[in-house]
Amino acid sequence: MVRAPCCEKMGLKKGPWTPEEDHVLVAYIQKYGHGNWRALPKQAGLLRCGKSCRLRWTNYLRPDIKRGNFTREEEDTIIQLHEMLGNRWSAIAARLPGRTDNEIKNVWHTHLKKRLKQNTAPPNQATSTITQVADDKAVQVRQVTKPPQVTESCVPTTAGFENSIPSPVSPQQSSCNFSSSSTESSSILTYENRAAVASAAEDECMDSLESNWTQASNTIGFWPENLSGMDEFWLEALKEEKLDGQEEGFPAGSVMMDPTYQAPLSPLTFPVYQDDNMDFWLNVLMEAGQMQSMPEF
DNA sequence: AAATATTACAACCGCGCGCCC
DNA sequence: CGGGCGCGCGGTTGTAATATT
C-alpha cells in the first residue's frame, strides 16, 4: 500500500513559518493542547499540514526549548552519547533538557562531526594531538579513554572541574587516593579531590594511553539486576541497548561503577583495563561495595 | 563592493511502528 | 488478522546568514 503524502492537499502552505502562523499555533495549543496533529491545523485555522505544525511546535515553539548556542559541556555530552547511542537523536535529546533532536542532529552535522574528525588522528599522531591545547586535549582524552560523561541530571556540575581532565587514572597513581575501607564513602573519589588526582595522573596517562587502555570495542558489561541507587541515566541506556552479547562474563546483579565519577560505567564505552589494571579496578569496586562478586573471565 | 563559497539551521520527506477498527 | 491512520524518527534539502576571495 502506498501512503498518501502528508501535505497532498492543495492549498497547504509549505516553507518557513511566519510570526503570525507561529502566534496562531501557540495560541491554539496553549488553549486546547495538541491531541490530534492531523486535525489541529484545520481547527486552528492554519493552512498547514499537521505534520508541519507538529514539527514547528516540537522543534521551535515549545516553551521549554532552550535557545542559543550549545555549551562546551553540552557538545561533549552529545559526542559521548553519540558514541554510545549512535544516530538516535531523540534518545540523545532526551538526555539534554531543552534541546531537540533536530537541533542536536544539526549541531552534530555542522560542528561535532568535524571536530571529532580533527581530533581522531592516527595512533602515531595521537600523542602530539593530545598535547596541543588544553581545551582540545580534554575532548581528546575523554573521547578516547572515558566512559560518556553523565548528564547534569545525573552528576552535578562542579564549577571549575569541567576544564580539568577526568583522566583514566592509572591504578598506581590512583591507589594512594583511594581508601580501601569498604565502609567509608571515601573509597570513591570526591568531586573535590578527583580533579587533583586527574591532573596529577594526566601526564602518565598521556604516555600510557595507547599501551594501557583500549577502546570500547572490547567492551565489558552486564545487565544489572539490583538497580537500587544506580544512576538513572545509565540504567536507561542499559535497558535500551539490551547489551546483546555483551553481558557474558559478569555475574547478574553486579554493577560496574566508575570510581572517579561515582556513576555506573557505560557498558558500551567502558574502556577495558587490561591485565593487572583490571584486577586492581575490580578490587576497588568490590571494596567499595559496587560489586557483589568477582566476575570470571 | 561584488561574487562565490561555506556554514547554520529550519523545515521537509519518507519510513516504520503502534494503535485501533 | 490485516489495513488504515497518526505519530515520531532520522535523513536530507532549502535557504538565509556569514565568511572568503
Walkthrough of the structure:
The protein has 297 residues and is an all-alpha fold. Among the domains are: 19-61, Arc Repressor Mutant, subunit A; 216-287, no CATH class. Helix content is 46%, strand content 3%. The strands form two sheets. It has a two-stranded antiparallel ribbon with strand order 1-4. Strands 2-3 form a two-stranded antiparallel sheet. The chain is elongated, with a radius of gyration of 23 Å. The termini are far apart. The chain binds a DNA duplex (21 and 21 nucleotides) through helix 3 and helix 6.
For the secondary structure, the number of strands is 4
Instruction: Please estimate the helix content.
Output: 40-55%
Class computed from helices, strands and strand pairing: mainly alpha
Mean pLDDT, nearest integer? 51
Kindly estimate the percentage of residues that lie in beta strands according to DSSP: under 5%
Bulk shape: elongated
Radius of gyration equals 23 Å
Q: What is the helix/strand order?
A: HHHHHHHHHHEHEEEH
Q: Whole-Å distance between the termini?
A: 51 Å
> What are the low-pLDDT stretches, counting only 5+ consecutive residues below 50?
1-9, 121-282
Give the biggest sheet: 2 strands, antiparallel
> Count the helices. How many?
12
The largest beta-sheet arranges its strands as 1-4
Topology:
Elements: H1 19-32, H2 40-44, H3 50-61, H4 72-85, H5 89-93, H6 101-119, H7 123-130, H8 134-145, H9 171-174, H10 191-212, E1 213-214, H11 232-241, E2 257-258, E3 263-264, E4 272-273, H12 275-287
Antiparallel strand pairs: 1-4, 2-3
The chain binds a DNA duplex (21 and 21 nucleotides) through helix 3 and helix 6.
